[in-house]
Amino acid sequence: MSAALFSLRGRTALVTGARTGIGRAVALGLAAAGADLVLLGRTADLGEVPDQVRAHGVAAEVLGVDLADPAAAEEPLRAALAERPIDVLVNNAGIIHREAAADVSYADWRRVLGVNLDSVFLLSRLAGQRMLDRGSGKIINIASLLSFQGGLRVPAYAAAKHAVGGLTKALANEWAPHGVQVNAIAPGYIRTGNTDALRADGQREAEIRARIPAGRWGEPEDLAGAAVFLASAASDYVNGHVLVVDGGWMAR
Ligand code: NAP
Hints:
- By secondary structure, the protein is of the alpha/beta class.
- Helix content is 42%, strand content 15%.
- The chain has a single domain, classed as 3-Layer(aba) Sandwich (Rossmann fold), CATH 3.40.50.
- It has a 7-stranded parallel β-sheet, sandwiched between helices.
- The relative contact order is 0.15.
- Bound molecules: NADP nicotinamide-adenine-dinucleotide phosphate.
């Protein structure tokens, strides 16, 4: 099998939430495979990530857009995408709100749905329109094990991530005939800011680790290979798939 199958040389990838965690690791993985990067952050301050991307010999551009209010973000995103043909879109930005369902305010519910679901639809539509015109493109949504399970004390997150799985399949059905592949990655328990609270609870951390057949939490870099696969020609006949990368959690 040729390495060219996985090469992203000459492609431009936009990754949301690229400052930290999985978004940063995926952006660096795509850069290592040759992609130029548009790094979207809540603000334009992405720290050292742009330089870390450029160290792979590719271009890095920064876009500061707060996705918490997707309606307000629409015009800036439309303008930004009009100037840049995006070959690969990674909808990674996400937040989590941990609270008993009976106590979750409507504002917190909407906040999680706004970042984790509405922005995925908005960006997929904006980038997808151009991909459909060109007859090619890759969209990768970052789903979750909570695209399949309900979790504990994270009802808005679980609802949003189930919806991300559904949206992935809905878009794939419409866009596959036009050369645009829409897929998702469902990370398991990964060592990032998103899971700090779980790891701070010694008992919960041990329970989680004990259920993972690989015997360890995932690192953000564990997601890079799946992202390169779904961004590259190697996945041209993969449509509407949610690829679990979880050290075996779901198999157990
Ligand atoms: P993380 O380090 O907290 O990363 C989340 C990223 O999203 C940050 O870069 C953050 O930017 C960005 N973001 C948050 N709110 C935003 C907004 N309003 N506008 C633009 N960007 C915003 O956690 P992570 O684990 O890497 O999360 C990345 C994705 O993986 C999320 O969709 C998460 O649900 C998913 N996921 C994580 C795990 C896990 O175990 N860690 C498991 C399954 C799925 P700022 O830092 O600037 O706010």
